[in-house]
């Protein structure tokens, strides 16, 4: 047999027929109130998590707009990282890559124990650094007995690992080891040429992948027009063996050739190294398809009566209808019209004055 007690703030509590002490009632009441408070607190936390906070400061708003996806992307930034252990050769290589991409690169000097690009658990920290610095390219250097002077170059899509290329650095020569005229030194931000020599870049899958990554790493921002005076360097890549590429950096010297096209000479300015391919990982087909999506280009609307000339530039025709100036009413009587009226009166011999003026003359 059960009895109902409606004393606990509207809640119906069921108790057996035995006598219940007041201590047990207070304990049950406290438990129910604590449960209600916990439900309210959890719901408020969930609402706070789902709420999107808009930035109030203009500086933060502009920074978020820079990181937002764009129809035409700007130059890609590169993140340079050190592994658990690095050699002096790797330190020099990463320093010189940073100097070549000084305008679009970020370099971390501390060692990163948790970063391991080809391992599933070691890519979390790398993706976090990519999101933090807004970098879509990274260069990771590590040194071990199994893989000495190891360099990993990779790309990210939506701040997740897209693809990876692992190479070993051999026969490295820094910029300081080359002697040349300092006036020929390439300028920061200038656009480079690329030269890929060898059939391996067309037939070997590893070298084809390395070619894509190197182009993405060094080509800089995409532009439509170039000034010939701004082209002052070239990256030369030669496929020596199926797994070895000779990479060097040269300056361009323009000389007179007797024709309109100047004669070009190459001056090696460094760095120079041999890249030995070790491991590489291509993206999945679904990820590649998603990353390669582009917006549909709208057809340009034809401009009527516009002609483009190589010398005069953009020319246009303007059609003006007949203005009919003779029949347009003038806003006020011009002085020339008054003079024509006076001349017409003198011509016809009418020199009569108005009545008001006559009366004034008679009164005098």
Automatic annotation (TrEMBL):
GO terms for cellular component: nucleolus. It is found in: Nucleus, Nucleolus. Its main location: nucleus. Coiled coil: none annotated. Keywords: Nucleus. The keyword Nucleus applies. Residues 76-286 form the Brix domain. One of its GO terms (molecular function) is rRNA binding. Residues 330-364 are annotated as: Disordered. One of its GO terms (biological process) is maturation of LSU-rRNA from tricistronic rRNA transcript (SSU-rRNA, 5.8S rRNA, LSU-rRNA). Residues 332-348 have a biased composition (Basic residues). Residues 354-364 have a biased composition (Basic and acidic residues). The keyword Transmembrane does not apply. Belongs to the RPF2 family. This is Ribosome production factor 2 homolog. It comes from Anisodus acutangulus.
């Amino acid at each position: 047999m059960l009895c109902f007690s409606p004393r606990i703030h509207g809640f119906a509590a069921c108790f057996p027929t035995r006598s219940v002490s007041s201590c047990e009632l207070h304990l049950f009441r406290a438990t129910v109130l604590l449960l209600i408070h916990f439900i309210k607190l959890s719901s408020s936390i969930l609402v706070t998590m789902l709420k999107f906070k808009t930035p109030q400061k203009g500086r933060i708003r502009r920074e978020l707009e820079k990181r937002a996806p764009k129809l035409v992307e700007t130059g890609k930034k590169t993140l340079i990282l050190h592994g658990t252990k690095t050699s002096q050769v790797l330190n020099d290589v990463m320093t010189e890559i940073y100097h070549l991409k000084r305008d679009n690169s970020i370099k971390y000097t501390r060692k990163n124990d948790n970063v391991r690009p080809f391992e599933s658990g070691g890519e979390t920290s790398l993706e976090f650094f990519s999101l933090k610095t807004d970098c879509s390219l990274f260069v990771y250097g590590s040194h071990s007995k199994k893989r000495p002077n190891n360099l990993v170059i990779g790309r990210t899509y939506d701040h997740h690992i897209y693809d990876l290329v692992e190479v070993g650095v051999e026969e490295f020569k820094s910029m300081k080891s080359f002697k040349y005229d300092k006036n020929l030194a390439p300028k920061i931000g200038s656009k480079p040429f690329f030269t890929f020599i060898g059939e391996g870049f067309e037939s070997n899958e590893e070298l084809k992948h390395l070619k894509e990554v190197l182009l993405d790493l060094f080509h800089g921002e995409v532009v439509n027009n170039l000034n010939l005076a701004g082209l002052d360097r070239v990256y030369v890549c030669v496929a020596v063996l199926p797994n070895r590429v000779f990479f060097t950096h040269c300056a361009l010297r323009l000389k007179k050739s007797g024709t309109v096209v100047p004669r070009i000479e190459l001056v090696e300015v460094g760095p120079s190294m041999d890249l030995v391919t070790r491991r590489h990982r291509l993206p999945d087909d679904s990820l590649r398809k998603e990353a390669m999506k582009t917006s549909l280009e709208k057809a340009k609307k034809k401009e009527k009566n516009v002609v483009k000339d190589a010398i005069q530039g953009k020319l246009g025709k303007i059609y003006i209808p007949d203005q009919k100036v003779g029949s347009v009413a003038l806003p006020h009587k011009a002085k020339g019209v008054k003079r024509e009226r006076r001349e017409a009166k003198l011509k016809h011999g009418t020199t009569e004055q108005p009545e008001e003026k006559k009366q004034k003359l008679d009164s005098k």
